[in-house]
Design a protein that fits this description.
Blueprint: H1 4-26, H2 29-40, H3 46-55, E1 62-63, H4 65-72, E2 74-76, E3 83-92, H5 95-101, E4 107-119, E5 123-125, H6 145-159, E6 163-167, E7 177-180, E8 185-189, H7 195-211, H8 223-240, H9 246-256, H10 260-267, H11 271-288, H12 306-322, H13 326-357, H14 359-373
Parallel strand pairs: 6-8
Antiparallel strand pairs: 1-4, 2-5, 3-4, 7-8
Helix pairs in contact: 1-8, 1-9, 1-10, 6-7, 6-11, 7-8, 8-9, 8-10, 8-11, 12-13
Length: 374
């Protein structure tokens, strides 16, 4: 059985590994290329974002006709219908204008004109690196992940002030789930094709509720900061049950934290929430019987026959090979060591009994030793 110190060390190791993996991404050539791509796209105002969405809800990356050619080596497809955004008309103010507008600014916005832009889906040419190149949702499903997802969801609904529900992915505007601080509600995409992804999303949104709720310490942090924290917690929690989500999690962080300083800062406070999520999950998996280590055939190994002792040893070796959860594997190894020690003790006793019953063997051993010494 793991001691409290061992469990604490394991949790700290998970968090440290998450930080190392995420920070490693920021030094990769692909991440740098991704940042360079982002820098080429203009940052649009909230008003223009609304305009783009109203005209084409599926738009993901937009740019002007010439910009697609010069910056991305792509051309707008013939017959493509432009998306219109508002561009300010800026005028240099005369002294009379400044007095009338009660301002000392030399320039001011006097109106708007509507410029045409096009989504990447309306163009052809060289490939453009996007978030989808990072976010790979081919998570390996875990044998018991559905049970754990349902248990965690029920726990949050019944034992906390959070309300967790599901909704079709089509209604989530491209998200896999969300947390709403004003109502303390978590909504998960119920028809996600991968159960591991649903559980990871629930961990992610739960982390938001703990770190970024109305009264939480980091509620006013930038969105990139918050998303990095939440995804790091989700990554750690999934690692704890033996499911690696690095392909998805690291890419998700990359789409939000475009500054290495943001990633460093955001990761520094994930320890507390990660530990809380792991403790909750471990408690639930034990209740479900998902992490319970196989019991020894007898509590007293000394009562086992030699044949049963050997069977127990071989069985534990096989279980260790198949175990995916580190805590379970550690417990199995402890059991294996106990069985090994009992086998060793019995073997030593048998040898001692044999030697005592055959003194000539002992004499031969002494003579052999003396010969070797010479």
């Amino acid at each position: 059985m793991l001691s409290k110190a061992d469990v604490k060390a394991w949790k700290a190791q998970l968090v440290a590994q998450a930080e190392q993996q995420i920070l490693k991404l920021t030094d990769s050539d692909q991440f740098k290329q991704y940042l360079n791509t982002l820098a080429k796209f203009h940052q649009y105002s909230a008003r223009n974002i609304d305009l783009i969405y109203a005209q084409d809800p599926q738009a993901t990356q937009v740019a002007g006709f010439k910009q697609w050619q010069t910056d991305f080596n792509r051309t707008v497809n013939k017959g493509a219908k432009a998306i219109r955004i508002a561009a300010p008309i800026i005028k240099k103010l005369t002294p009379a204008d400044q007095k009338r507008l009660d301002t000392t600014d030399e320039r001011a916005i006097v109106g708007y004109r509507y410029l045409p832009i096009f989504d990447i889906s309306q163009t052809s040419g060289d490939p453009v690196l996007s978030a989808k190149d990072f976010v790979k949702e081919n998570l390996a499903d875990h044998q018991n992940v559905t049970s754990l997802y349902n248990a965690f969801k029920d726990y949050l609904n019944q034992q906390t002030d959070l309300q967790v529900s599901e909704a079709p992915l089509a209604k989530l505007n491209g998200a896999k789930g969300y947390f709403q601080p004003s109502t303390n509600k978590i909504v998960i995409g119920g028809d996600a094709p991968d159960n591991a992804l649903k559980l990871k999303t629930l961990y992610h949104e739960y982390a938001h509720s703990q770190l970024h709720g109305l009264k939480a310490a980091f509620k006013d942090c930038p969105r990139a900061y918050q998303e990095t924290q939440a995804e790091a917690v989700a990554y750690v929690a999934m690692q704890n049950i033996g499911v690696d989500t690095s392909n998805y999690s690291l890419g998700y962080v990359a789409t939000w934290a475009k500054d290495k300083a943001v990633i460093h800062s955001a990761l520094s406070e994930i320890q507390q929430v990660s530990n809380k999520v792991i403790a909750l999950s471990d408690g639930l998996t034990k209740q479900l019987g998902l992490q319970e280590a196989p019991k020894e055939p007898e509590h007293d190994l000394k009562k086992l026959s030699a044949q049963d002792l050997n069977k127990s040893y071989q069985g534990l070796q096989q279980q260790i090979k198949q175990a995916t959860n580190p805590q379970q594997k550690s417990e199995l190894k402890n059991q294996l060591n106990s069985v090994h020690q009992e086998i060793s003790n019995r073997t030593q006793k048998q040898l001692q009994d044999f030697v005592s019953q055959n003194p000539e063997i002992r004499q031969a051993e002494r003579n052999t030793g003396e010969t070797l010494k010479r």
